[in-house]
Write a structure and sequence with these properties.
about 210 residues; alpha/beta; about 50% helix; about 15% strand; KDPG/KHG_AS_2; lyase
Length: about 210
């Protein structure tokens, strides 16, 4: 299954940004075991590339494991070398361009119509509507009017209630950080993480 289809099937991308590399790794594995099939490890987290390498070795080659906050060409190259098979960017730029050249699917950050057009032209696989909290589900509805087939993935301030609203407004998936991960990637409770994962999977139809 390609990344675009995986997004439409799973409808949930977990975003991990931890202060503890071991805890971040355990968070990846716990989410995967809970059934979350699309996981992003932000490069702004501690030892993120090490977390990606370690998780890739455990999850195997087929799992969707991405690097997030990919800003530069070097970020994209290092993410690919670490085993990321997708990248996520907060906006347009070298991170997107280099990822596309490397053959990696990209969830590219956009907010405005002009950015949607530019991201599509650059080869983005899907569009991270970020920060989605700026306009909420109503803004997504407005943006879908000129781009009815665009694969939007709202990210930023997305809790369970917002997830329902964004999916109802036509998002193909949502990206969720702290409302899902909580403090797990900082050494927090993995049992609580499993409970939250089950709740979000239920909302997303997983």
């Amino acid at each position: 299954m390609n990344f675009a289809d995986a997004l439409r099937t799973a409808r949930l991308v977990a975003i991990i940004r931890g202060t503890d590399a071991d805890a971040s790794f355990r968070t990846v594995m716990t989410l995967a075991e809970a059934g979350v099939s699309l996981i992003e490890v932000s490069l702004t987290g501690r030892d993120a590339l090490h977390v990606i390498r370690r998780a890739r070795a455990e999850l195997g080659t087929d799992a969707w494991l991405g690097a997030g906050t990919v800003l530069t060409a070097d970020d994209a190259r290092r993410a690919a070398e670490a085993g990321a098979n997708l990248t996520v960017t907060p906006g347009l730029g070298a991170g997107l361009d280099t990822s596309v050249r490397l053959g990696l699917p990209v969830l590219a950050g956009v907010l405005t119509p002009s950015e949607v057009i530019a991201a599509n032209a650059a080869g983005a696989t899907a569009l991270k509507l970020f920060p989605a909290s700026v306009g909420g589900p109503d803004y997504l509805k407005a943006l879908r009017a000129p781009f009815p087939d665009a694969p939007f993935v709202p990210v930023g301030g997305v809790d369970a209630a917002a997830t329902r609203a964004y999916l109802a407004a036509g998002a193909v998936a949502v990206g969720v950080g702290s409302p899902l991960v909580g403090d797990a990637a900082d050494g927090g409770d993995l049992a609580a993480l499993r409970t939250r994962a089950a709740d979000f999977l239920s909302v997303c139809g997983g």
